[in-house]
Specification:
By secondary structure, this protein is mainly alpha-helical. Helix content is about 55%, strand content about 10%. It contains two helices and two strands; from the N terminus they run ααββ. The protein has a two-stranded antiparallel ribbon. β1 and β2 (about 65) form a beta hairpin. The radius of gyration is 17 Å and the shape is elongated. The relative contact order is 0.17.
Length: about 70
């Protein structure tokens, strides 16, 4: 039935969005500004942790660090 299929697809989209929100936002440290995130990145580099990038979060509006920057 088409309406059941649409409901199932909507539920799958909601699950995927929730999983992405957790992975990209909720489990990470939040920084209020890009400058704050970049300062933490610099501290990490000084301690030998290289390859980090920061990004503005579409969910919380803050900044997070990632080791998998988008290409």
């Amino acid at each position: 039935h088409p309406s059941e299929l649409a409901a199932d697809l909507e539920a799958l989209d909601a699950e995927r969005d929730e999983a992405w929100r957790y992975k990209s936002c909720e489990r990470k440290n939040r920084y209020d500004t890009r400058a704050e995130a970049e300062a933490v990145m610099a501290d990490c580099e000084n301690r030998g942790r290289r390859g980090l990038a920061c990004y503005k979060c579409e969910y919380c509006g803050g900044w997070h660090l990632t080791s998998h920057p988008w290409k």
